[in-house]
Amino acid sequence: MTETLDRAPRDATAGPSDTTTAADAAAAPAVSAAPDAHTSVSSASASVTASGADAAGATMDRRARLVLLVLCAANFLVGIDFSILNIALPAIGADLHLSEANLQWVATAFALPSGGLLLLLGRTGDLVGRRRVFLTGIALFTLASVLTMLAWSPAALLIGRALQGLGAAGVVPTGMALLTTSFAEGRARDRALGIAGSLMATGFTAGTLLGGVLTSLLGWRYTMVLPILLGVFVFAATPFLIAESRNAQHSRLDVPGAVTVTGGLLAVIYALTTAAQQGWARPGVLGTLVAGAVLLAAFFAVEARSAHPLVSLRVLRRRTVALGNLGGLLAFATASATVFVGMLFLQQVNGLSPLRAGLVFGWLGVVAATSGSLAPRMIGRYSSRTVMLLGLLAQGLGTVPLALMTHGDSVLILLLAGSVLYYGNLHAIVGYNVTATSGLSNEEQGLATGLATTTQQVALTIGIPVMSAIASTRTGALQRSGADGITALVGGFHAAMWADAVIALAGTALLAVGLLRRSARD
Question: β-strand 245-247 against 3-5: which pairing, if any?
Fold first, then answer.
């Protein structure tokens, strides 16, 4: 592919012949929603690729370090924002009068545009300029954070969160493309990707802890102060440090693909959310669900005929790519739901303050980050498929005790069983990332990494609302049968966690059959 670089300050290690596209770079560190900070995938997989590299060969000069600082600050910004409000959900619900069933929209409103538009905005950056789209995304993200902080109603809050998600959809793929075009291929780039991934993982854990501290001491609105300050810093520093870059090869945008996949996901999520409030039998719920399924089917039909598809179906036909992405879908969707449900359980059932709940999940984030750093060694010793399957198995088994939590023992269970769950989750994610992108040609690598990022974002979009719908439906049924509020909440949380565990374990069994069948054939 042909790259054009506009005149602007450029990192000394830049490689002008780099051919990475923004959409392809989207599979580098990206936002996640569980304390494992799912974004450790990229840093861990980079470690797999660069194992044995001489660290001395990856030294950076002052400008290179500044470029890396700015791009890592953007990664940290997105990572911290996704998690910092999760811990404050009960406080937000009480302040803005959001019902239990609607609390998940605080996370979903962010995930929908960030997932549905990520690849389209990556392609837009390839065409009109990656730095331009990156700066636009940072500006929108920062202004949306101000709106979220000042939200005077549920509608204002959700609009702010949706605009943050839209900004993140521009920042993530173009930011990683700018990183790969600012550092020459090899050890310098591997090191930069590893640092960026680790900082995004740190951002998620820091967001959980800071969210608890700020919500307890000052109120949930102050959780937006750090994202605003980081956004201002990144926006001010980028024009002076980072060169503009484009990819002249991408002259068309797959607008029909973006419209159908975003519309389909929105319809499905809306149907799942309203089902928790109105019941599954309502015509509006079923009609919206069917419309979402039709739009998603149309998306695959569009992609099969598109010259520049957002998702390559040709690559998806490879068994390792398909099964690897299925493993990633399971890992991201089920783990993000346990975070959402677990935080609500600690605060609404056990009465923990946001600070104490944040400390619990902060510890689980440390466990997950440790797992992400160790997973590449396990892959080197065994295989990515084995590590993915064992990680998913541990995740599913670790979820089972969460379905048995009661009022008095939830903290201990979350600390013990949650450590197993999230340790396994990061092993599964690193294994999925390697499985879904290995054994491919250079041309197919970019398509496969773009597909992996799409899988991650779709999983984060559907995981929380699905489990929230299950929990709310069960809670409502128990309340109608005469159960008190706490008993009904516990019953709803239990139903969601049982469903989560069954899906993880059943999916692991199906993946094992598919991967073992391929291994036997090979």
Answer: antiparallel
